[in-house]
Amino acid sequence: MADLSPRKPDPGPEPEAVERLDSWKEIAVYLRRDVRTVQRWEARENLPVRRHLHDTLGSVYAYRHELDAWREGRQPALDPQGPRNAFLAGRRRPWVALGGVFLLAGAGLVASRSSSTREDAAPVVLRTVQLTNDRLPKFPRLATDGSRVYFSERVGERWVVTAIPTTGGAPETVPIPLTYPVVEDVSPDGSEMLVTNRSSAVNGNSALYRVPAGGGAPRRVGEVVADSGARWLQDGRTILYGNGFQLKMVDRDGAAPRTLVTASGIPVYASASPDGRMVRFSVVDTRNMTCSVWEVGIDGGVPRPLFPGWSAGAADAHGSWSADGDYFLVATRDGTDGVWVERGGKTWFGHEAAPARLTILPVSAYAPLPSREGQRLFLMAEFASGHLVQWDPGAREFVAHPAGIPGSMVDYSPDGAWIVYVAFPSYTLWRARADGTERRPLTDPPLRVVLPRWSPDGERIAFSGITPAHLWRIYAVPSKGGRPQPLAEGRGAEADPGWSPDGRSLVFSRDLGEKPYTGFSLRLLDLATGQTTELPGSEGKSWPRWSPDGRHIAALPADSQKLLVLDLETGQWSEPVTGDVGFPTWSRDGTHLYFQAQEKNDLVIHRLRLRDGRTERVASRKKGPDVAAVPGPWFGLDPQGRLLIMRGTTVTEVFAFDYAWP
Length: 662
Hints:
With 662 residues, the protein is mainly beta. The chain has three domains: 17-73, Arc Repressor Mutant, subunit A; 96-384 and 651-660, TolB, C-terminal domain (Neuraminidase), CATH 2.120.10; 404-577, TolB, C-terminal domain (Neuraminidase, 6 Propeller), CATH 2.120.10. It contains three helices and 52 strands. The strands form 14 sheets. A four-stranded antiparallel beta sheet has the order 7-52-27-26, with no helix packed on it. Strand 12 and strand 13 form a beta hairpin. The longest helix has 10 residues, at 35-44. The chain is globular. The protein starts with 19 loop residues before the first strand and ends with a strand. Residues 1-17, 53-58, 75-108, 112-122, 200-204, 335-339 and 341-359 have low confidence and may be disordered.
């Protein structure tokens, strides 16, 4: 049985008294919260608070370094031996009724029942079983043929499709001759799988194949490419899939492709009802990193939002129908992570209130998949972690960074003595000495931070930040601590701030398009006046990077298929590199521009010598797993020019929940 409830660490030796906080009030002041909040954190999120053994009234104390470590990770500890087999058996967790909605706590699974159901009835979790314990990276998709659960995972440097009995047992590899096969669904009769080949991805789209359920030669579904998965309709003849901003359907042989709906964002996790009348799907708005749930008739028409006002604020919402069509389940992640369960009852359509939550796992969970007989729910549970590594050119591999940083997106102070970094998985901004000592947070949740940049005078840190249900904005915070302040006027989504060498200006990208990626331009912010102006010729460009000598700005087009460089003296743009590129990064002396390029099944870091346009291969990221976290597979440079990345140590396992609906 796997106990996934948070554990308090072994206290170990007592630190010096100067580190100790001797009351709830002192702890609350240190964490910049009120007393009730930190007491709730101690009860629900394992805040490391200790109690004097002699005091039955419960006087408390805590140590600063333990609070810092808890706040930095904000993630339950993972048993070093791996999660065990199940975690709810023998632990009855109370169901709390709240107006027909049933709550436990955590991050999200939402279930709605048809209007014939009693509103005061609750589902009962009977048993929880851990189906996998291999500690391998897994793609967030599950599929079933009734007797087996299928998923894709990485074994060494290869991605494979694995099948495991729905009741538990030994996993088996399904032989599929594709480089990066991702199983999307199994046909209603259980004979065929839908599989995308992610190594063929261009701008996120992947070729779609039909493969026998036992494995074998893949058959291409016409010319279909799908960037957000694919599902069978119940008739077994029609396939539903997402492409760009469109949700489409096609016959199983690739014939008669047609558009069901064009969404305002990217449609994902589409699922047709078992009676074939409607389709529900989520729409991702990448400008504010939110996901909303929608419904449209099987013949198209005007889509309608489900749970408006609630689902529009979710960071992720992955939906799936129960086999009988009575329930629609949605696993959500809202920045706090966990698992939700919610019933909408008769008020599913047009329901305005935010749903309550049911805690099943104290970690991120996604890919809900009801079993075909209707009494079991499969989920993926993620134990997220990662740490900084650096490139060893002699060994030609990434090795542990001596600072032991549990995060990424590192930037060094101008004198090289300090760093700022983004802790993972909390996405909070931290400052530390370059050797990793004297760590302290500069931001708190719910603000999520990416890509911090140290000002040339060392006094401020600029970064991109987002809070739930809002657009990305650019901020600055004093490097010694203080309140983060937004810098621009907040029109559209703002991202990627970069300092001018004199520290008087920032360059950043802004997206004013009605749809993500359609209205990019680069802006210059005068920090003295607060005024912004558009950089000439920057329409459709993003990811700006100002060179250390101030003469050039590197950028990418919206499709990331070129590396662009603007000469600020001549006003001319050049295109020194073409192909699928990302993360332009200047060397400290400004003579080289580093970038990433996708090469078949490998992500390779190159550098461009600006003087003559010569490029050379520097390092491959193929060895060792990376964390594919927002804003993607980051890399950076230390003052000596060594490459830095974050290596993922995240563990994902498959769980099954036996339940009974009234």
